[in-house]
Amino acid sequence: MSQHFDDMEDEHEHAGIVDKSPFADQEIWELGQWLVNNVNQQATEDFLRLPIVSQPFIHTCTQTSYQSKYMLMKFINKLPTGPEWRCELIRVHGDRDEHGEPEEPDDEDNVEELELWMCDPIACMKELIGNPGLKGNIAYTPEKVYTDHQAKTQQYDKMWTGDWWWNTQVSMQVKQMDKLA
pLDDT digits over 168-178, tens only? Predict the structure, then answer.
């Protein structure tokens, strides 16, 4: 388990925060998740303003801890996040003009500035490996999977069933064996 998750768990335990914090409970979390994934913003606002949902003590089984889409998004923003995203502006030179003709490499009219969003891949790996929710669901070893008993038709459905993963791990093992010899 990563230190990030350990620290967060200790902090929540000390503060008496429930598991689905900042949401009140599992059901409220699931409702918020469903609203975000399935309902547009205006319909979410309309739903959260219905008296059955918004007025306290009328129907406590439909009471939420958020009364608007804005409040729901504030709760979502309190959830733990992964590695930090950063943005770099890159300049892309086109190779064709508007008529499809090759451009001169120094032509500044055919340059576009784009945003490139990225995360540190090492931080991403640490986050994934340290995430207790993924425990037992991460594969490290390459695997050859076949759809027939004769092992003639290979199945490629997970990253670790791919040839690249197999070849990379096997070549690393060969290099390690060479070092030991």
Answer: 887 777 777 77
